Amino acid sequence: MSESVTAVHSVEKSLKILETLSRVEAMGISELSRELGWGKGTVHRIITTLRIHGYVEQTANEKYKLSFKLFELGNRMVNHIGIRKTAHPYLEQLAGITNETVNLAVLDFNQVIYIDRIESREPLRMGLDVGTRFPAYCTALGLAILAYLDTEKLNALLAEFERQGQFLKYTDKTVVELPLIREQLATVRQRGYSIDDEYYLPGIRGVAAPVFNHSGTVKAAISVAGPAIRMTEAVMAEFMPVVKETANRISVQLGYSG
After folding, report:
1. DSSP readout, the chain?
2. How far apart are CA 120 and CA 132, in angstroms?
3. Does domain 3-67 have CATH number 1.10.10.10?
4. What Å distances lie between residue 136 and 9, 198, 217, CA to CA?
5. Tell me, what's the pLDDT at 2?
6. Which PANTHER family match (predicted)?
């Protein structure tokens, strides 16, 4: 099927408006209608949707201009790429030491998303891809990041999780009670690392530690994960200090001074 057939026209029109606004300071509905050759009603519906979602702003004279949201999204991706480039050699070293899968992830609202990983060479392994997403509250990577968010942001995020009914029980070990999740996060902050004892995927365990930038803000987390048959409590205890040290070395490369 050709791209012209599969394209979603409303999305194409939204992108066209964003591209048009990117070339000017601001434009009104009538100006956009003339420029694009569309009816005013169509322009108004699309731009209202873009405004509601924060991609455009209405000026005092009822014209529209781009907001900073696109800049923020692009800047976020640049930051993620920078972290990935900085972290990758350290991930390779960690994978060589542990012989298990090593992951780098960032927080995206209520999920963590893998932005880099070194897969274990063991026959029994996870087999997940970069770009895979997991709930933040029940994975080692997510807990490592959530634990170091500033209090206001963390409280708002947890409240939103609860409001939307997103504390789901994936395994018998998944912690879904908010007070207990807060206890987990307090323990992570005290220890400097987090664990995943089959909280999300049955038979998968892991240990993770946070990565900070130059301003001391948590930006990512790294983890070592593998089958529970290999990731015993003794093995995880052995991996914990090396995971913390690796995360700290990456943080230092990002300008973190402790």
Report:
1. --HHHHS-HHHHHHHHHHHHHTTSS-B-HHHHHHHHT--HHHHHHHHHHHHHTTSEEE-TTS-EEE-SHHHHHHHHHHHHHHHHHHHHHHHHHHHHHH-SEEEEEEEETTEEEEEEEE---SSS-----TT-EEESTTSHHHHHHHTTS-HHHHHHHHHHHHHTT-----STT----HHHHHHHHHHHHHHT-EEEESSSSTTEEEEEEEEE-TTS-EEEEEEEEEETTTS-HHHHHHHHHHHHHHHHHHHHHTT---
2. 17
3. yes
4. 34, 14, 17
5. 43
6. HELIX-TURN-HELIX TRANSCRIPTIONAL REGULATOR, ICLR FAMILY, HTH-TYPE TRANSCRIPTIONAL REPRESSOR ALLR
pLDDT in tens, 75-99: 666 566 788 889 999 999 999 999 9
pLDDT category at 1 given cuts 50, 70, 90 is: very low
Tell me which of 3.30.450.40, 3.40.50.300, 3.90.230.10, 3.20.20.370 is the CATH number of domain 74-253. Answer: 3.30.450.40
Please check the confidence at residue 157 and state whether its pLDDT lies above 50: yes
Domain spans of the chain, in order of start: 3-67, 74-253
Average pLDDT over residues 182-199: 95
- pLDDT of residue 53 exceeding 80: yes
pTM exceeds cut of 0.85: no
